[in-house]
Amino acid sequence: MAVSIKEVTDRRQLRQFVRFPNELYKGNRYYVPQIESMDMDTLSPEKNRAFEVCEGKYWLAEDGDGKVVGRIAGIINHKYNKKVGKRICRFGWIDFIESQEVAAALLSKVEEYAREKGMEMVEGPVGFLEFDVAGVLVEGFDQIPTAYGKYNYPYYEPMILKEGYFKSTDFVEFRITVPDNIDRYIRLGAMVGERYGLRQGSFRNKKELVRKYVDGIFSVMNTCYSPLHGFSELSPAQCEDLKNQFISNLQLDFVSVVVDLDDNVVGFGITLPSLSEALQKAKGKLFPFGFIHILRALKKNDTIDALLIAILPEYQDKGVNSMIFSKIGSGMIKHGIKYVESTRELEDNHSVQNIWGRFEHHLHKRARVYLKNI
């Protein structure tokens, strides 16, 4: 197959870039489209404050007839590279038809870009920041991903490996069954709070949650996530982007903020009703009807996605996670939630996985990040 690679240089091409997976996976029951406008914002330097510390380019692959057959992004996160002392170019937003020629052409273009920028390795799929979708699905092809995951065809991995890449790390996802009775966790949470002088943060609405605790939440997040693969400390502007992205969809019964006697945040958990089926119905569009499906999913659901959880190091292994679960668990019982989907967690993040170990759970999805020295 004749393959040409074209750099994305205008809004029309960027829209083609964003829409390509919708064509590639048309009719696939497991594919969850992202909201087109949100993807456009993420990829636009004037909209995404990740470009404070990142730079990047995007490319489309076309066949001999000018039809788009693949896409890829090349990204350099200078802040993360400085932190780890390595010259890494990331690739992300990779999708392609079942063609080794297309996969090779896309990855070669990122490698060429990496060499031009003086990088020594290419790693991906990874986004600008830790909160962008990362990894190629290698297990769980018969499962619908969370709204913060991604589906891909099974041929992705063998074709990427054939281009000289090898495993860097894995992300895993669990499906957890909510127990019928959480009284023991409520009692344990109360005991932990009394022992260490901790309590649930008080907020009556989202505005109060933001005013009182959002800065503390991001501070705890930066502290706890700092050692994780791919994470660089979030700037105030990047925190503002994340706040705008998530706050409007939060259901307060599914949020726990644990504070000390001085009302300082020491840990938190944020979950959200599953939006996967709603996004499938929305087909990448908020309007005219997509937002209705999302609103319905937020109000009536039997599954929630565990988005974020973090506890300051000095409070870890002291049962603070039971305080978080007692608050969110009470919300789950109240709203008839039966299942929790963990979003992608690093395979060696045992502190989070130990939380699921107390409940009926099973690992049902795995995504892989690859590395190549150039």
Structural summary, described in words:
With 374 residues, the protein is of the alpha+beta class. The chain folds into 2 domains: 4-171, Gcn5-related N-acetyltransferase (GNAT) (Aminopeptidase, 3-Layer(aba) Sandwich), CATH 3.40.630.30; 179-337, Gcn5-related N-acetyltransferase (GNAT) (Aminopeptidase), CATH 3.40.630.30. Helices cover 37% and strands 26% of the residues. The protein is built from 12 helices and 14 strands.
Task: Give the helices and strands as they follow along the chain.
Answer: EHHEEHEHEEHEHEHHEEHHEHEEHE
In whole angstroms, how far apart are the ends? 26 Å
Which residue ranges are poorly predicted, with pLDDT under 50 across at least 5 consecutive positions? Answer: none
CATH superfamily of the largest domain: Gcn5-related N-acetyltransferase (GNAT)
Radius of gyration: 21 Å
What is the topology?
Elements: E1 4-7, H1 11-24, H2 36-42, E2 54-62, E3 68-77, H3 78-84, E4 88-96, H4 100-116, E5 121-124, E6 136-139, H5 156-162, E7 166-177, H6 183-196, E8 199-200, H7 206-225, H8 236-246, E9 255-259, E10 265-273, H9 276-282, H10 290-299, E11 303-311, H11 320-335, E12 339-342, E13 345-346, H12 350-356, E14 361-373
Parallel strand pairs: 4-5, 11-12
Antiparallel strand pairs: 1-2, 2-3, 3-4, 5-14, 6-14, 7-12, 7-13, 7-14, 8-9, 9-10, 10-11
Helix pairs in contact: 4-5, 6-11, 9-10
